[in-house]
Amino acid sequence: NAGVTQTPKFQVLKTGQSMTLQCAQDMNHEYMSWYRQDPGMGLRLIHYSVGAGITDQGEVPNGYNVSRSTTEDFPLRLLSAAPSQTSVYFCASSYWGTGATDTQYFGPGTRLTVL
Amino acid sequence: DAKTTQPTSMDCAEGRAANLPCNHSTISGNEYVYWYRQIHSQGPQYIIHGLKNNETNEMASLIITEDRKSSTLILPHATLRDTAVYYCIALNQGGKLIFGQGTELSVKP
Q1: Which of A63, A94, B62, B102 has its CA 20 to 30 A from that of B45?
Q2: How far apart are CA B98 and CA A45, in angstroms?
Q3: Could you read off the pLDDT of B73-98 as tens digits, one per residue?
Q4: Which residues of chain B does A104 touch, with a Cβ-Cβ cutoff of 8 Å?
């Protein structure tokens, strides 16, 4: 298994540009989520999904859209990038939610800079 | 989910046991204690979790006090590769994994 993969690894955008961060997993996990991590800070939950067709907001959802059309993929869209969205983005997945027996598996991250 | 409190940073000598404390005084009966770590620039990695009983796996041991208000993660023989930020998280079934600031552990030669 490749686990959780994220593309691209690095990205530089100009203010106002849009882009999609890709996340895929091959473990047949129902639950997927996106986090951002600013320098020197902990991770903050952006959006999550408990299965195909179902998404919900986390702690910091503003400025981001998600959709979940398949079990494997959970893309994160920035509609109009802002410098405040400069961060490292991590995708994670688990079998179901973050319940008692559900280990979260994290991807390697996408490092995004918005100028 | 209950709030957890951890020291900001700790040092440990290589080869010695690293004992990382976590306070979770408001934890409820159905909340588990999870530990993750994040090595510099990488995605977080699951370490261990427990409810009431002490737990051990190939990476670490988790000691939970009888009243469940605090716990300790033990890395029995810390190596330089264990230098990371360690997160203690209280979580119930179906809860969202919310990270705090964690403890920055530095393992020194």
Answers
A1: A63
A2: 7
A3: 999 999 999 999 999 998 876 677 88
A4: 36, 44, 46, 97
